[in-house]
Amino acid sequence: MKILLTGTTGYIGQSLLPSLLKDGHEVICCVRDINRFDVTKYQSDKLSVIEVNFLDINSLHAIPDDIDVAYYLIHSMSAVNQDFEKLESISANNFKDRIQKTKTKQVIYLSGIINDAKLSKHLNSRKAVEEILSSTSFHLTTLRAGIILGSGSASFEIMRDLVEKLPFMITPRWLNTKSQPIAIRNVIEYLKGVLLFEYAFDKSFDIGGPEILTYKAMLLGFAKVRNLKRVIITVPVMTPKISSYWLYFVTSISFTLAANLVKSMSVEVICRNNNLREMLGIRLLSFKEAILLAFDRIQHDSVVASWTDALTSNAIQEGFSKLLNVPTFGCYVDSRKAELTNVDKALNKIWSIGGENGWYYANWLWEVRGFLDKLSGGVGLRRGRKNSTMIYTGDSLDFWRVLYASKDDKRLLLFAEMKLPGEAWLEFKIVGNTLYQTATFRPLGLWGRMYWYSVLPFHGFIFRNMLKEIAS
What residue spans in the chain does CATH classification 3.40.50.720 cover? Predict the structure, then answer.
């Protein structure tokens, strides 16, 4: 079957793609920037990538006509632009107009449960997209999910941050809102199960797990799985804005995403009955099973996707290609080199940098920098990394984005997504037996120049000793 996959770099898209390839389907992935997507990690001759931006009509010609099924997994809730409803409407209309001109028989859309009279802005946007995608030329199947639990999912990582960092929580009252969480494994089973399934044509289905839980019950259940004792007190005085800041500072999510999530979490999301699960033969995982499965993947270094991979700074959104060639004019550069006695060992150290492995020297200073970044509205240092030993182009790595990663070329290039009065790159490259480590900063105005000189003393011993540790 020939399948078009949109939202490829998002959490659901990254989770679905390997499963579709494993089942033998030919998959065409739509990405806004082809340089951001690393096809090498999939090792499949049935995977192709096309550069498509659904906000740009002219780019849609890259979509082939002989498509059997298309997955619409595009969401803009974490966009820096607050008017994500407008963005989603434009994307959906452009997608529909192009797909109607192809041979596509079915479009599968993953939406949110919308069974409440008063919807949040986020859920209302999902409902509007569903209405836009309705068509006479193809069959639309809509699957509506609430909280999705899996290693790397935003919901899982938020709960993990809260439970593992806070033994005592004073929380907003929306923690008493009921929801019906579902394991990512079950979501993938549903997404694959409805492929050209005629019963599901032109219908929508709520999908959820076997339990209805409050967010408070989920946090306490998470704590129980982790053998942690936690006390949670809910109070009515936390405004949505205070709640958003609370989530932003304690967890790894952006403030924009936190604000949109808080609005959504005040709405009950419980599934309406349907018989799709029975028809597809899906065994629903319990909340506890979903959490245990997620940690099993983490412990075995087999996290397939992370919600952070879809989040990017404004500079990244303009395209990887513009950033791959590190500038030199008007830039400040800290360039160092070291001779290696074991190239392979040094390369493995480079590929393991960041996350729980740290930065090899003065990790506490990196954490302070991450905390300061959070205070200024940045991503901070909490995003970590998906895998402790492997890095791919497009991955998030603490407050960096991986622009280029090739062990064959012995080169790793990172771009800073922290809040800066300018732009910053960090590159590791091995030529022969020599390791070159280069930090480049392109300042923005006077503040950028003042920033560089203020951190220069720290760069001196941090970068020197980091290089020494990698080369040793």
Answer: 2-299
